[in-house]
Amino acid sequence: MAVQKKVVRSGTWTNPIFDKMLGEQPGIDLDVFKIAGADEEAWAKLAQAHVYHVFAAKDELPRHWHVTADLLRRCPNLLLVSSSGAGYDTIDVDACTAAGVAVVNQAGGNAMSVAEQTIGLLIGVSRRLMEQDRGLREGRKFSREDVMGHDIGGRTIGLVGMGHIGTAVARLARAFNMTVLAYDPYLNAEEIARRGAAAATFEELLSRSDIVSLHCPRTKETTRMFDAQAFAGMRPGALFITTARGGIHDEAALFDALKSGHLAGAGLDVWDFEPPPADHPLLSLPNVVASHHTAGVSHEARYNIAKVAAEQILEVLDGERPARLINPEVWPVYAKRFAHALQSAANA
Fold first, then answer.
1. CATH architecture designation of domain 110-290
2. In the annotation, is 274 catalytic?
3. Is 321 part of the annotated catalytic residue set?
């Protein structure tokens, strides 16, 4: 008898291609739960789920729907947790590994969108576009020379992280004739070169770059990686750009580096808490261009992410090892659980 494979996702906005692809697949039972107002019904759905496709925005998804050890205890059938994005801030990966649950993300699905916004923030800061916009809207009198910025062409950009997004940023940066450096402790110099940058140590990257741009995940190793010491190690007058994750940079330390004039400006898409309050100190600075964690949020990127997620879930439920497995060490235990839960039941 065929086993109905149950996929449950949080009821947050998702491109319709996700539901269409899974809903049309024989043997897949797709269900959606409301993230507010119907907790009992939601828990009943999750308790039966083989796959939980969880929203990746940590401050938009209520905490009790984050994948924690407690949620995993309440969901004994769960085999796979799938993040709705490249990030997986709403998932306790260690708890999943301990429970024999595989974790996947959708890395690369929105890489070009994030890379484009990285360059957009860079140009916005370097050419002081927001200062000009605000001055015109507020009716201030200023000359063009008062808001004169710098070209980005020919400058040196240092990328912290050389995955899908860092590689895409490097490609765009080279179109501006920029020198590209990269620090990524998980890649050797040859692989970094193959992806379009020259390898550098963290300290070298800080001291040599006119622009430092973050493209690494937030982990135990990267949390507060950019503190007062790191900002002090950057070149005077450098720019800081991040489209990575809030928490990798220390917001108070960045404010001090900008306020003192050591750094010339910053383009920030991510925050400790999102969205940041209107009275956030960084938002008071004219040389900060801010966005609301939207670098990976375009129509094209949302479609790509949803499609990649649906394809990957279908591959896993078909018994294949996923390409974007976050916790590969879980695989032997997971494979046994998968066989017991789905294949054994199918033969019963």
1. 3-Layer(aba) Sandwich (3.40)
2. yes
3. no
